[in-house]
Amino acid sequence: MSKVTEIERFFYGNVTIPQFDHITANKAIDLQKQLTKPVGSLGKLEEIAIWMAGWQKKIKPTIKNPYCLIFAGNHGISNKGVSAYPSEVTSQMVENFKKGGAAINQLCKLAKIKLMVIPIDLDKPTMDFSECKAMSEDEVLSFMQLGFDSIPSSCDLLVLGEMGISNTTSATSISCALFNEPVDLMTGIGTGIDKIQLANKIKIIDKALRLHGKKFKDPVSILSCYGGKEIAAIAGSVISARMKSIPVLLDGFITTAAASTLIRFKEDILDHCLVSHLSAEPGHVRILNNLKKEPILDLNLRLGEGSGAAIASLILKAALTTHNGMSTFDNAKVSKQISS
Amino acid sequence: MSKVTEIERFFYGNVTIPQFDHITANKAIDLQKQLTKPVGSLGKLEEIAIWMAGWQKKIKPTIKNPYCLIFAGNHGISNKGVSAYPSEVTSQMVENFKKGGAAINQLCKLAKIKLMVIPIDLDKPTMDFSECKAMSEDEVLSFMQLGFDSIPSSCDLLVLGEMGISNTTSATSISCALFNEPVDLMTGIGTGIDKIQLANKIKIIDKALRLHGKKFKDPVSILSCYGGKEIAAIAGSVISARMKSIPVLLDGFITTAAASTLIRFKEDILDHCLVSHLSAEPGHVRILNNLKKEPILDLNLRLGEGSGAAIASLILKAALTTHNGMSTFDNAKVSKQISS
């Protein structure tokens, strides 16, 4: 009998899932009230600091060991002309990440994030999911476990990204199934296809949704149908972060879709995740409306790689540096609000 | 006869105003096309990098010497109960800035911005502009010149902020006059007044607008009526940056209102300025609609001090680090887009 993995134990065992620590968060709220500024005047920065406090269980949360993990995978469906780029670009970009030439390398350097690139069997794409299942459920579990195992124990902020030519097709199909959203409104240009290619992409996704359906009771079966390997690994890493109470910054459309599969297991399973930015992919806003999550940034990005999440980590740092570093009214001898 | 100041020469002389350099910007656009990412996939970051290139006249623009200037002033109108804080808080916060305890200190440290605090005669507030003019036109010119003179010559990005108890009342009056907007929709809670105080603030602004009117042909006369000293200095520093082709990050409501006065002199005078964030003050979005400017961030901030602008400088850095540091398709041996 093979060993039971953490992912199997998570789904099929009876594990206790760490929750937001309201006691610490309330202490962080008290701290905010003493800082030399009108209460609430730092808006979302205050919310973020308090949210980080609750997840890190520290009144003064920190970002000292942020990691960006980029999972990369290839997709059989790329043979159907759904992307503007050939599938060899996945491995070429992985090389680019390793050599330091991609957008995410510059952004990680700026934000002092350690970058880990995890290519998953790039020479073995998933099956074309418009014809059959992308992969078996056992494969899904193994890639989720790979994602689960990839989080360094010292990590205090997880920045998640991905690379995989044609993976917006996968993510769009997943999102249409999960949230029962219309394909034409969910499908975007990805890396930059034209109108004719977009019509084809919509047709392919439609076909896949007719083949596999939209009703799924668990994350594993939906990922088995629509793929991909990197998407399963992202979902596994989100679980891992939750089990360790590590706050997560989801990047854009793909990463959010990957994490969203987990709500089929438990509705509040993404409470430890923030959405970094609103992607230019039209499906993203629809996923976020379903998840009731607001993006931190809106910069019209559609690159992936974790780029938006790396940028959003700077906003988190702004939140923590003010929360942790400001003087109090008493210390600074600043008069408090006049009571009216 | 007294010496003619730069501000006087700017308004009344025949100076050549530096313009956006389209030749350099076009070269920056060409560079963007070669970087290892789909063209346009970095959205606003690409626009910002190209904009910076055009203003700095460098294909690869830089942020090596960013300065945050906080101008501080006191307002006679604070006697009318328009703020949640007593006017001594202006000088107390200036002390806090100097000691490093305020939000802007932490944010400048994070973003590696040099902070300069410029208090302007804090013991001499402007006159109560609901009763008479806030100050003379000569005073306005002198405070504009002070702002003009405050920009270090090495500065390559100007981050502008302010401190002044009751200055949302000044900024709201200015904006209502400039853009003929309704007082009740423009007026907000500032540092955090309650509903009764807000009704009083609206009444005071209404009274001032009836006293001074809304029709002004030049920035100096509008600032003379509604103040304040720090607002005039901000306007002067925006002129100075323009004359030196230094890109400017305006902070929130007050800073944008201060800069907006200059459009009464020349419609395109704020082309070298970006708006950092959308303030929680309800008037800000209305000013931005009039200026046809989009904020970079929307974090529900309403602190001032340059806090939003310091945060937005991180987004500018993200724009430049990708623009300047990424590999090209040729260098990284990444396949280009499939032509359809």
Question: Can you walk me through this structure?
Answer:
- Chain A has a single domain, classed as Nicotinate-nucleotide-dimethylbenzimidazole phosphoribosyltransferase (CobT), large domain (Rossmann fold), CATH 3.40.50.10210.
- The first copy, chain A, is 49% helix and 9% strand.
- Chain A is globular and about 70 Å long.
- Chain A is built from 15 helices and six strands.
- In chain A, strand 4, helix 12 and strand 5 form a beta-alpha-beta unit.
- Chain A is α/β, with parallel strands linked by helices.
- The first copy, chain A, has a six-stranded parallel β-sheet, with helices on both faces.
- At the A-B interface, helix 3, helix 4, helix 5 and helix 14 of A face helix 3, helix 4, helix 5 and helix 14 of B.
List the helices and strands and how they pair.
The structure is a homodimer of 340-residue chains.
Chain A: H1 6-12, H2 22-34, H3 43-56, E1 66-72, H4 88-99, H5 103-111, E2 114-119, H6 137-149, E3 157-163, H7 167-179, H8 183-186, H9 195-212, H10 219-226, H11 229-243, E4 248-250, H12 253-260, E5 273-277, H13 282-291, E6 295-297, H14 307-325, H15 329-332
Parallel strand pairs in A: 1-2, 1-3, 3-4, 4-5, 5-6
Helix pairs in contact in A: 2-3, 3-14, 5-14, 6-10, 6-11, 7-9, 7-12, 11-12, 12-13
The CATH H-level homologous superfamily of chain A: Nicotinate-nucleotide-dimethylbenzimidazole phosphoribosyltransferase (CobT), large domain
How much of the sequence of chain A is in beta strands?
Answer: 5-15%
Oligomeric assembly: homodimer
Shape of chain A: globular
| CATH architecture label name of chain A | 3-Layer(aba) Sandwich
CATH fold topology of chain A? Rossmann fold
Written as H for each helix and E for each strand, in order along the chain, the element string of chain A is HHHEHHEHEHHHHHEHEHEHH
The CATH class of chain A is identified as Alpha Beta
Q: Tell me the total number of β-strands of chain A.
A: 6
